[in-house]
Batch of 3 targets.
Target 1
Amino acid sequence: MILGHQRQINFLKKILDSGKIPHAFLFSGQEKLGKRKIALEFSSWILKEPPISHPDFLLVEPKGETIQIDQIREINHHLSLTPFRSKYKIVILDSAHLMTIQAQNCFLKTLEEPKGNSIIILITPFSELLLSTILSRCQEIKFFPLKRKEIEDFLKNKKIKNKEKILEVCQGRPGVLFEILKDPKKLKEIEKIEKTLENFPQMAIFQKFNYLKSVNFDQFLEVLISYFQKKIFSKEHSRAVKILKLAQNLQILCLTSKVDRRMALELLSLEI
């Protein structure tokens, strides 16, 4: 289901009703806001049936850590075909920021020379990693965290424990909420990491390094960023801002270059 983002949904409905659908969209905003769900829903409106397994629909995701040029060629081939059952051919390019530079340059040609009734939806939390020439050719729709009340209202009649903690952890991100509702252990994992982060300033360097050997890099970094985002509004403001910037820079560095992730986390831990 889709939670929130009514303004963006209404905007997409108006575009659909106008009959003038742009060739390319960019759904931007931090991770786990529901951008992909809405992209799939929008595709279903256009195709007038569920997109998955539809012959006129293609979902492209990273192979490993990148989206490669052969995947862009697959997009070009898909869009070159005549629509089979719909008026449009649709492609969703998820995690578009993970396109290699070669893939981005190839994809740019796709945007410059649109084929027939084709619609492409790029999804990314890091639009700054895309070529400016790609950005300029897309209709951008920005997504933001939901207001606390939207999630409170959704949880009101649900018989679950730790509602306050869930609201705190979600920080307006429906994706995090649904992960916790699907697997309650997720909340315990997050709480465990947050507890460790609270103790980090008192831990010896070897203790920090030993702990980091056992963590999942992506999960730890995600929780760390969320943790210090909350600290911005506390007495630890200046420290939180400094660590948050370092963590966000590390996140982008890991997406754009091959770095030793564990070593990078160890260096970051020295600042906590």
Target 2
Amino acid sequence: MNKSFLDILVYPEIFSQLSGKSFCNKSVGSLSWLKVGGSAEYLYIPSNEEDLSLLLGSLHDEINLHIFGKLSNTLIRDGGISGLTILIPSSFCGIELVSDTKLQVGSGVSDKVLANRCLSLGIGGMEFLSGIPGSIGGGVFMNAGSFGSEFKDIVLEVNFISKSGKKIIKKRDEIDFGYRKTNLCDNMIIASVLMEGFLKDSFDIKEIMKDINLQRTLSQPQGRPTGGSTFKNTKNYKAWELINKSGMSKAYCGEATVSNVHSNFLINKGKATAKDFENLGNMIIEEVKNELGILLEWEIQIVGDNE
């Protein structure tokens, strides 16, 4: 039976007021960086913050909600995602210069786009963003980081929209930033972020970004679908070290395999399924635990239903 997007709305009459794009049973696996996974039962791509707030204020309370940006660090299971999936587009809210060193940045803005904008403005401290293949909202939510810096270093305050459509602002000291995690809940949708760097010569910024991108090119797989870092580093070891020590650096499952460039990256050789990736990841976790007595944790977010 065909589903109607109207089924998830308390007030179907607001549908004509929405300016975003709505879909039912829409394939989203192909949009993920791993290029695997099923369909979203309901999918919405908002046009702006007001549009998203209007939608959320009209949803049935029991609807399951999932929010994504670039889908760069996400594994969508083959059975797809039930409930409502919201994709925040890269145009969401844009980038506004607030002062010489502060910017109001939309949650859908690409990390790399912001890094390049800061380069043109002579704002330092944001160079590490050029090495993260995601969006600002996702980066804040998981406190993403690379090359010695994390989002907690540049966030001043975060503007949210609650599941009820209410707008909420949280200062940096109200958010618990941990290693690749925060205390933010899934029902708090990041709309925009106030971020701060410092004045710096653009030539120096450019040199750092060139070095970051060179290191990324040399140390991370290129030309194959991948989801970024698969497992979190532990207190005493890098995840790739543990994978190598356990003998799993050449492991594979179906067409999902460990990268020969960086062991903490899993790549899609062409026809892998989400199940292949999840099984491979769980095989690695089990072997590292058995061989070294250390439990690896997924850094990739796994969502959706098994077939």
Target 3
Amino acid sequence: MMKRIVVGMGLAVLAAAQPQPGAEGRQQLTMHFRDPSMPRKLVVEGGTGSLTIRGYQGQDAIIEYTGREISGANGRGPGRRNEPPAGMHRIGESRGLDITEEDNTVRVNSQGIFGGTARDMVIQVPAQTSVNVKTMFGGSMTIENISGDIEAENFNGQVTITNASGSVVAHSMNGKILVSLDRVAPDKSMSFSTFNGDIDVTLPADTKARFKMRTDFGEIYTDFDVKMEANAAPVVEESKDKSGKSRRRVRVDGTQTGTINGGGPEMQFTTFNGRILIHKK
């Protein structure tokens, strides 16, 4: 059986908990995980505004959200709004929020990606919960105090992950990746990538890993003792154009690889325009 909360235009359907008003227009909802003794997962999709996911010592998922206008937005489309007609003013926030629980997975689907408003959210879950979050037009994304596996994708904004002790896959198209791990799972690969921004990752000093690092426009720095491996051999490609003339192309992959503390699971660090910083905690 699936539990579901649908919030939008003042409506709550099949609610596990009614929205509770808070200070400064903040609303709070609680969704129960079906079986606290089994693995739990949180999935968050869509929306605008900032997002914070925080591990705590409770048993439920607690979702707090606050709507706000985006400064200077006008017209139509993401991050824009129409100017009100003369002599009229806007009432309320009509963007939807869909929260479901099924098979010990809580899903939060924020539908507020159009108009001149953003929805800032803070979600608390038990620290052992695995987290999978993907936003398209959001602001900053922060995940902290989570010991489950983390998959985080922020299309347009920074990803910050602190006090984590599970595996991490973090990606941004346009934003910095900032990660600090308290413990590294000994048998799981990790990936940190962005198209435009720095990658800044802190690992425990005893981490065993094989680094795979690439930046097209930036530098790579670390205070780990990295045993570098030989670069991959150039790739030679033979082809012919439309007139039948032969063409040869040689490609040299700029990826750098190396191991720390004798090697271990692979960690990928990839940015097109930015630095890669790998710190020893």
